[in-house]
Amino acid sequence: MLQDIGLYWLAFPLVGVVAGVLAGLFGIGGGIVVVPVLYFFFAQIGIDIDYRMHLAIGSSLAIIVFTSVSSVISHHRRGAVIWHAVYLLGPGIVIGGLAGAALAHAMSFAALRTAFGLLVVLIALYIVLGYRPPAQRALPGFAGSTAAGVGIGVVASLAGIGGGVMTNPFLLWCGVAMRNAVATAAACTFPVAVAGALGFMMTGWRATAEVDGTTGYVFWPAVAGIAAGSMLAAPLGARIAHSVPVQGLRRAFALLLVLVGIRMLAA
């Protein structure tokens, strides 16, 4: 199969650049862009329909493993990461990431695609409304944080988006300042991506054994190309976010997400 993907080899870094800029610009995981692109790519090269969505999500999580590192380092250098919160949420996030991968493996192609499409539409609404939950309480203890982490990990792993879009509102609800919430959510993205990617590798081990370039539900050519482009471009998106008004861009991007979500639901 690898010899048949032709110019797609060149397209992967370009997809990574787009995903990286959008992630840096709007503070959301690039997986929201990568998963639909990979889904339609796998359709083009003839991957079995039963595995297309699983491969797209698993590959997206593997990409996030690499792209999240530079983001975490950047936030840590600025002293913005609340590591105590990361340690509290981390165990649940890892458990949830593995559980989400197992749940995705048990779900049909259509169910997984529908769940992703609905989530994309909800994220679009969140971006447009710019909702910030009011602080209602302090960070919970170990048990409460573990439970929250499991929920975050399951959704992030099921959708291949890294989890920042859930972690950030949770931290704001717990009274964490926006700057610290964004940085801490970025730090939480790494463990959920690692756990989810490993889970997708293990659960898809036999399903994609005959597909070149894969380990379970992870397609390594796409991971390498997209991760390289995304890691280079994410700082550019962050600089743009700090230098130009982005409200209009947020609305345009949200509209694009709605169209993508509807397209996934109708595919």
Descriptive notes:
By secondary structure, this protein is an all-alpha fold. The chain has one domain. The chain is built from 10 helices and 2 strands, in the order ααααααααββαα. A two-stranded antiparallel sheet has the order 1-2. The model has no long low-confidence stretch (mean pLDDT 83).
Quick rundown:
The protein is mainly α and 267 residues long.
Which labels suit this protein?
two-stranded antiparallel sheet; mainly alpha; single chain
How many domains in all? Answer: 1
Bin the strand percentage: under 5%
The DSSP helix count reads: 10
Number of strands: 2
Segments where pLDDT lies below 50 for 5+ residues?
Answer: none
**Helical content band:** over 70%
Average pLDDT, rounded to a whole number, is 83
Kindly report the spatial arrangement of strands forming the biggest sheet.
Answer: 1-2
Secondary-structure map:
Blueprint: H1 8-26, H2 31-44, H3 49-77, H4 83-106, H5 109-129, H6 142-159, H7 164-173, H8 178-203, E1 214-215, E2 218-219, H9 220-243, H10 247-266
Antiparallel strand pairs: 1-2
Helix pairs in contact: 1-2, 1-9, 2-3, 3-5, 3-8, 3-9, 4-6, 4-8, 5-10, 6-7, 6-8, 7-8
